[in-house]
Prior knowledge:
Elements: H1 14-30, H2 37-71, H3 76-108, H4 120-123, H5 135-142, H6 149-152, H7 156-170, H8 175-201, H9 203-217, H10 222-252, H11 257-263, H12 265-274, H13 281-291, H14 296-309, H15 312-328, H16 335-350, H17 358-369, H18 375-415, H19 420-429
Helix pairs in contact: 1-9, 2-7, 2-8, 2-9, 2-17, 3-10, 3-14, 3-15, 3-16, 3-18, 9-18, 10-15, 10-18, 12-13, 12-18, 13-14, 14-18, 14-19, 15-16, 15-17, 15-18
Amino acid sequence: MSEPSHSCQSPVPTFYLLLAVLLGVMTGVGGHYIDLSVLNAVASGISQVFIKLLKLVSLPIIFLSIVSTATGMENLETLKSIGGRIFKYTLITTLISATLAFVIFLLFDPVSAYTYAQTPALQAVGSVPISHPSYSEQLIKLIPSNIVEPFLDNNVIGILLIAMGIGLSTLTLDSEKRRGLNQIFSSLYAVVMKVTTTIIRFMPIAIWAFVTMFFQDLANLNQFHSLALYLAAVLTANLVQGFVVLPLFLKLRGGAPLQIAKAMLPALSTAFFSKSSSGSIPVAIRCAEKNAGVDSSVAGFSLPLCTTINMNGCAAFIFITVLFVSMTHGMEFTIAQMFAWILISTIAAVGNAGVPMGCYFMSTAFLVAMDVPLDLMAVILPFYSLIDMLESAINVWSDSCVTVVVDRELKALDAQGVTSTVSASAEADLSIG
């Protein structure tokens, strides 16, 4: 399986993001005392353009990240022996993360503190009319009738289904055809990520525009309270997952949480400051092999795969963000529908790209598909840098936990003579170079 080539460096230094927030606060608050109508018009235009650019790249990222990963697998035997365990623990930990987000969302209840008053400026930020079809109609609409339709309709679940179908089907092809497909999809994915990186480089300007509009359109302090509760819910869900759930998972599977955390600390630090779990793969593999004692064949397969499919922090962010933004715009969810969103968030997180703002793009795509205005996503964006840093570290920590557990299980089976041939072939086939 080839190693992703994402850089460990964030496209935008954190200093510029903080400076953009500060300037946005100054122009936003200053607009209440002096005439800054020209700046407000500029901010509105920049916001519209940036939202459109986010929509442009979000769906291709989802599709290509899944297909390029699946086509990079060597064979079904590898998938069964190592991949099966990785998928099992990935689904378990990600499902727990989404369920934890559900509980914390109900406890914090950020929607109750929100008073929505959509002003003309906010209407300019990608707002569209809200429709309220029945839930069964929405579910039926998710099933695509052709390959192109989901991309035209912003049908994220349909795109996930097509991507998973294509990806799994390629595993039945001979190795030459599979490698050819992998080169095509990986190249397309690299192109989209180059475009995304270019868009992100303009993020400080967009953040200035969003913060300026937010303070100009803020009707009362209830929005501050609601946003604070939302941010607290997202951060709490990630912290509980990282400091309670994952160490407990390791402990139950015979691991030593503190020892493994110390071994993986350089990779966790890289993920935190780069805001990219993909960018930390080279460091994570070295830490797993040299510090945690993970077999090179397992580390070389598990960590790149987990970087794409094991997104604990993303599951929590998607669940809380989609429900918060949609409910503040008038949509209602029953408890049963929230349980359905636990599953949707889990599936979406499994298919999410481990790159800066990957969770943000995924959540935006869901809201677009639901016909929910994106004005609150613009408000959330200035704070997403902090969220992304924590989520990236949590994702790599989860990847490390899954990899260590899988390695321990394979070594236990190998000691009994069960998987020796598989491990030998995996070491030959799954070298990361």
